[in-house]
């Protein structure tokens, strides 16, 4: 085991494993903590030290990382928000929650990070260990957005940012200048299914980073599963933010989008709805 380690607070999905492998490639040992009902127990094979806790056991989580000599850690992988409503906080977590006025995703995660850092555990960007996951700028598929799709992107982009600023969600579904569905705690894929059922074929999905988002936590993410949902429900376009969105299984996802004639465009940083974007095709 390396003398230097990285701690990983692991949620669901492939991100924790990819971060662990990226850390090993840099010569770091991996200390990982997951949560019952959220984290795949098979992740134990990706770590030098591994523990499964119940969501809300903040005191035990801090003790586990400190006992294993961790000084830096990151958060990787999603936590099911509906399941998180069943959170049973220990005394330490209860004190953190009690101090909060707002209970949105960002507010809770920022408070947890503050608590971790108060114990000398520096929280770092997980994407720094797998930089290739960040979506590049430009039209990623063979087909660029049509004029009608551009109109929906320009309509939906500022709305999505307002919702993000309110710490509600990162994704909206639009069609012909109307908002069809807004992401809440159900997550992006469930929002896309609901939007597809309501709007029918021809919807456009817009997924953005919440303004002021701490890039150590909860960056927007998508992969082949998301593209399959878009295809199943007849979406024609997906707009996301370059550099700030994690794009898993990119080659497979883009090939699938091309197969179903779905345009994917990764917007440049600072794009505003009234601008003519300069994007690579």
TrEMBL record:
The keyword Hydrolase applies. One of its GO terms (molecular function) is hydrolase activity. Residues 136-265 form the LpxI C-terminal domain. Pfam families: LpxI_C, LpxI_N. It comes from the Bacteria. Residues 6-133 form the LpxI N-terminal domain. Coiled coil: none annotated. Keywords: Hydrolase. The keyword Hydrolase applies. It is an enzyme of class 3 (hydrolase). Gene3D superfamilies: 3.40.140.80, 3.40.50.20. This is UDP-2,3-diacylglucosamine diphosphatase LpxI. It comes from Nitratidesulfovibrio liaohensis. The gene is lpxI.
């Amino acid at each position: 085991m390396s003398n230097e380690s990285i701690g990983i607070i692991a949620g669901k999905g492939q991100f924790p494993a990819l971060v662990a492998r990226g850390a090993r490639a840099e010569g770091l040992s991996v200390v990982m903590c997951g949560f019952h009902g959220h984290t795949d127990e098979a992740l134990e094979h990706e770590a030098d030290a591994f523990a499964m806790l119940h969501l809300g056991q903040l005191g035990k989580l801090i003790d586990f990382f400190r006992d294993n000599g961790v000084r830096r850690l990151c958060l990787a992988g999603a936590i099911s928000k509906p399941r998180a409503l069943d959170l049973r906080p220990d005394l330490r977590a209860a004190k953190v929650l009690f101090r909060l006025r707002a209970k949105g995703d960002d507010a809770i995660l920022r408070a947890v990070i503050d608590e971790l850092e108060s114990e000398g555990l520096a929280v770092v960007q997980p994407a720094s260990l797998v930089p290739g996951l960040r979506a590049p700028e430009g039209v990623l598929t063979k087909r660029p957005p049509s004029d009608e799709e551009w109109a929906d992107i320009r309509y939906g982009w500022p709305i999505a940012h307002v919702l993000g600023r309110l710490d509600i969600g990162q994704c909206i579904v639009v069609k012909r200048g109307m908002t069809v569905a807004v992401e809440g705690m159900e997550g992006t894929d469930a929002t896309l299914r609901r939007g597809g059922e309501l709007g029918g074929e021809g919807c456009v999905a817009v997924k953005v980073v919440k303004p002021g988002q701490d890039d150590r936590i909860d960056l927007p993410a998508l992969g082949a599963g998301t593209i399959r949902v878009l295809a199943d429900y007849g979406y024609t376009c997906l707009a996301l933010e370059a550099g700030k969105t994690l794009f898993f299984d990119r080659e497979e996802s883009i090939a699938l989008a091309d197969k179903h004639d779905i345009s994917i465009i990764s917007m440049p940083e600072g794009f505003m709805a009234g601008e003519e974007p300069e994007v690579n095709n």
